[in-house]
Amino acid sequence: MDFQVVVLAGGTSDSEKLSPLVSKDVPKALLPVANRPVLSYALDLLEASDLKDLIVVVEGQEAAQLVDAWVSSAYLDRLRVEVVVVSEDLGSAGALRAISKRLTANDILVVSGDLVTDVLPGAVAATHRRNGAAVTALLCSVPVSGPSDTASSSGKDKAKKPNRLNVVGLDRSKQFLLHIVSGTDVEKDVQVHKRKIQVVGRMEIRSDLMDAHLYAFKRTILQDVLEHKEAYRSIRLEVLPYLVRSQLRSAPSGGSGTAVDETGSSAVQSSGNLQCLSQHRVIASSAFKQNVLSRSSGGHRCCAYIATKSKYCHRLNSIQSYCDINRDVIGEASHLSGYSFSTQNNIIHPSSVLGSKTTIGPHCILAEGSQLGDKCSVKRSVIGRHCRIGSNVKIVNSVVMNHVVIEDGCHIQGSVVCNNVQLQERAVLKDCQVGAGYIVTAGSEHKAESLARKYSEL
Amino acid sequence: MTTSRARPTPGGPPRRQLHAQIPPHHPRAPQGAAAAGAHADDRVHAHVAGVCGVEEAFVFCCAHSHQVKEYLEKAGWAGKSGPGSMAVTAVESHDAISAGDALRVIYDRGVIHGDFVLISGDTVSNMSLKDALQEHMDRKKKDPLAVMTMVIKHSKPSILTHQTRLGNDEIVMAIDPETKELLYYEDRADNSHLYITIDKDVLTNNPTLQLHNDMEDCYIDICSPEVLSLFTDNFDYQHLRRHFVKGLLVDDIMGYKIYTHELRSGYAARIDNFRSYDTVSKDVIQRWTYPMVPDVISSRDCSESRLHRQGVYKASDVTLSSSAQIGANSVVGSATSIGDHCKVLNSVIGEGCKIGKNVLINGSFIWDNVIIEDGCKVSNSLVCDGVHLRAGAIVEPGCVLSFKVEVGKNVVVPAHSKVSLLPQPSNEDSDEELEYADTNSGITDSPPFSSMRSNGDQSTVPLEEDESGTSETGTCGVVGYVWTSVDTGIVEEWRQSIAPIPKEKLEELRHAVSDDDGSEDESNNPTLPDKDDSSDSVVEDDDHISKFEKEVEETFQRALGGGVNRDNLILEINGLRLAYSLQHADCAGAVFYSVMKSALVAAQSTNDTLLKTTADALGKWKDLVRNYTKTVDEEMEILLKFEEMCQETTKEFSLLFPKILPYLYDTEVVSEDAILRWAEEKEHADESDKVFVRQSEAFIKWLKEAEEEDDEEEE
Question: Which residues form the EIF2B subunit epsilon/gamma LbH domain (chain A) (predicted)?
Fold first, then answer.
């Protein structure tokens, strides 16, 4: 397939939402999800769709080196990956603009590096091709976020929900994207342009879909927009809405003289066609639409690929989603992890050492070289490599990264513990995030806190 | 309007009642609509009786109630009762001015006790209400708050015509695709609102909703009895849709819900304007409304009408010349005679008409007892009972000729005229809120003849304004009053008339559709430049300038009163100029205008004093004016302004023009260059524009000679 893939992998500084998880040593793309860098999910998926020409765009030199090192070792001989550095804070559109010259294929697939999904990008690409679209966006159901078993956090989610209302307008065949208002800027009533409804007759407004940050673009159009709209920084918030808005626009006025003549003579006929077509609306729906849209000669089409509800689709862009994704990947969406689970529904690396009376529940991963003392209990958690965990430790619903030391009697619940953290005896963490290298003092209790080393200590 | 209800038969379906409304009197159809309504009414009833087991119907009538009753009587609806047939009762009220009022009257009379079907009397339908009724009942059992089920129907699919087909306003609905609950309804598509605004709460509660612009509202509603009490509680509800439906949708305290039922087979359409009258009539002829088709209905009336090839319906006793040609999809009523070489295409001709020779009737509706003499042409028009078209008359598309209007020999009735023997009622407020306005028994109650005369702007029709004209000849004109359309204005004329939509309108629509939104661009709520933007801005511009002139004049007046000294006056005028962002030249014109106006005010009528005061004023204010006449262009502006004033605003100056011009020259307000250039430019202008140049010819000649002399001297 003549597709070039751009993976926007972010950097180390990009999202404050993910501090303290992201650090200099661990750029966002390499955050472990079930002990694999998050980027590997996207790359594996692309590989599965036979999309092997990749440009991975990383913000910042150091992060790029780390990503490059990892990619070249992990995907040697599997993918042709080029890691490109762009400066930080360009935004997604800015990053694309920076690498615009490298884009040569007819169509460009843009994937966010933090996407964890089982929707095949190949399917999106194929839809894009089939419709001859200018842009095709992957839309998926808004995940029912928040762990269902902890009442507290699900309560939080309910409060959050209205904030990230995405409004999407689709045509009757649900293939064409007619209207999009993304996320946070919808605090008010929804406004839909009447003309659009007039053109299509019927528009389906959905607020239960989210933009998954996976787009197929026609290269010429993408480059055009990037070039002419220099202020655009975000694909989701600016480029895509712009394309959707402008899709019905007629040809630039310069050529209108001839354009009018053409449409003038063919117009009656084409409306005749429409009438016939609509008789077989179900079959011909896409043709129907194509007809409508192609009448405006300068127009282009914006399409949507809507993932079915059963598909998993989640972006790692907040602490909450990090926890959710980890939980899901070892839980209900375990097919994503690429591991084969044992009969107890968990994975315990053979090189790990368990003390007596220590139990590892289902939906857990225990990676190589980690040791647990006696009478420990691990439930629904991920434990990284070479962790040393003492006795009487309880770990529930948590992520423990690599080289973490947890002393006796610690309780960890709903937390994320980064690399090289030391938890001294009887430390209790609940809903906390502990940044790399932090030392939690003995006997301390933390609840819903973000713990990280101050810069002076670094 | 009419209401009726059926008695429950034992073991029969739940008691249902029908309430039919006939809008008595469409504001734009002098007398015609009532009769149209009656015909439609017939179909409603036939339909209701035929297919849905409604046992009792109430026909609510206000205006023309006797006509409606008479019709019911004649058609055998009234007073029938007995198993299997529908009883029709007429409910009369003369003070109901809206659907809301009608329903309140019905509530007060207590005739309806259960669920009922509310249908407007101008609806033509052959749909089976069974499914909709069943749906409504089932839903009500589950959710008592579901008080109404609205029947909607897919409109024709072409994007250009699906809304213009019936000439009604465009409807935008939002419907929940799962439950079919109606979430949003907007039926007045004024283009000033480019956006549809959907409340965010609606969206949070319904993650998926469908916005429809491709649905027609059939105006058939299945209602729970709560609807009546809602109307009584909210005594300001008038319009069924605009007030009641919207009110329910907005109100979330009571939580009443409205659902929709999409009609997939069957026919339903409402006739509330001429275009829908045309469309529905054609649908009837083409038998979409079976069994409500001419031959079936007529067989019931015992007057035979038979369907011939190509959809031609002819009564058995039609006198048809052998050389006359009846084209496809036409209806000719009984006892009508059609002369030699006539052509009738796509038209309906009523009973007892006399049509002469060589008449062309195309796409028109000719009602009963119409006389059309030789050589007339009628296209795409509605001609009511008893109209007389004398030989050679031509009725252009989109006309409506009301009862007994006479059109003289060889008269051309221009397109979209509406002519009635009655003067147009003067109450301009008959806006659509009062759609069912009670102008009860139109003839006696209509306002005095003096109150409204034909608007006379249809200059091609020499109108018989004289009342005596009604009885007399009319050989040279039209007997009747031309009605202006009350609320919509000419813009909407094409939309609602019988005439086909003009090509350019279709073109425009198409462009409107494709010519989207450069506008919608960056900002979130832009104002879309409309297609007629350019003309708008011109108007605005004129407005702008005249406002400016007014302000300058006021400022000047204050200066005259001594309030402002001269320097400040200049400052103020400059300030105004900046505020209105106009050119220096505009200022010159405005200031000059103010000065001259002041002279005019000071002068007492006669030309001599006017000349004198003008000279005084100019002498006094020449510095001020000269302040703005730095270039020849600005001086020209003054001359042009002066001309304009003479022609339009202050005609008093027109005779003095040649006398004032030299004075302007003397005071150096305008230079000779400017005058000569002005004269030069005017040379090629229209005669009417040259008046003042002519008047000042002598002076201009003198200027020219002086100039030549100057040149010679220099040499």
Answer: 351-440
A188 neighbourhood in chain B, CB within 8 Å: 200
Residue A196's pLDDT band, with cuts at 50, 70 and 90, is: confident
| DSSP 8-state secondary structure symbol assigned to residue B230 | H
Instruction: Tally the domains of chain A.
Output: 2
**CB–CB of B520 and A245 under 8 A?**
yes
Q: Which residues of A touch B197 (CB under 8 A)?
A: 189-191
Nearest Cα to A410, choosing from A387, A435, A436, A386? Answer: A387
Quote the CA–CA distance of A285 and B177 in Å, as a whole number: 18
Q: What is the DSSP letter of B529?
A: P
Work out the percent of chain A whose per-residue pLDDT is above 90: 25
Please name the residue ranges forming H helices in B442-583. 442-445, 490-496, 503-514, 533-560, 566-579
- Give pLDDT, residue B39: 41
In a domain, A259, yes or no: no
- A167–chain B Cβ distance below 8 A for any pair: yes
Residue B467 maps to a domain: no
Q: What is the pLDDT of residue A445?
A: 92
* Helix orientation angle between B607-626 and B657-666, rounded to the nearest 10 degrees: 30
| Interchain proximity B209–A204, CB inside 8 Å | yes
Give dist(CA B418, CA B481) in Å, integer: 8
pLDDT for B85: 62
Alpha-carbon distance of A184 to B447, in angstroms, equals 59
Residue A228 in this model has a pLDDT that exceeds 70:
yes
Bridging pattern class, strands B325-326 and B305-308: unpaired
Residue-level pLDDT at B698? 80
> B193: distance to nearest CA of chain A, Å?
8
**What is the residue range of B138's domain?**
115-190+202-270
pLDDT for A161 equals 45
Any idea what the CATH number is for the domain that residue A100 is in? Answer: 3.90.550.10
Q: Check B195 against A193: CB less than 8 A apart.
A: yes
Residues A311 and A351 in one domain: no
Partners of B319 in the β-ladder: B337
**Is A35 in the same domain as A178?**
yes
pLDDT of residue B8: 29
The ipTM value here is 0.72
Looking up residue B634, the CATH number of its domain turns out to be: 1.25.40.180
Taking the C-alpha atoms of residue B359 and residue B561, their distance in angstroms, rounded to an integer, is: 72
Task: Provide, as residue numbers in chain A, all residues whose Cβ is less than 8 Å from the Cβ of B204.
Answer: 162, 165, 207
Helices (H), B286-380: 294-301
How many domains does one find in chain B? 4
Query: Which residue of chain B is at minimal alpha-carbon distance from A187?
Result: B200
Residue-level pLDDT at B284: 86
Q: How many CB atoms lie within 10 A of CB B653?
A: 23
The verdict on A445 and A308 lying in the same domain is no
* Residue B643 and residue B704 in one domain: yes
Whether the predicted pLDDT of A272 surpasses 70: no
How distant is the Cα of A92 from the closest Cα of chain B, in angstroms? 19
Identify the residue whose tokens are 């939690």. A440
Q: Which helix (H) or strand (E) holds B637?
A: helix B632-647
Residue A239 sits in the same domain as residue A352: no
**B321 and B232 both lie in a single domain:** no
Which pLDDT does position A295 carry in this prediction?
A: 43
- How many other C-beta atoms lie within 10 A of the C-beta of residue B351? 18
**What is the band of A455 on the pLDDT scale with cuts at 50, 70, 90?**
low
Comparing alpha-carbon positions, the chain A residue that sits nearest to B526 is A193
- Burial of residue A73 (CB within 10 Å: 0-12, 13-18, 19+) is exposed
With pLDDT > 70 as the criterion, what percentage of chain A qualifies?
80
Of B460, B536, B438, nearest in space to B191 by CA? B536
> Is residue B397 helix, strand or coil?
coil
**Is B639 a member of any domain?**
yes
**Cβ contact, residue pair A204, B177, below 8 Å:** yes
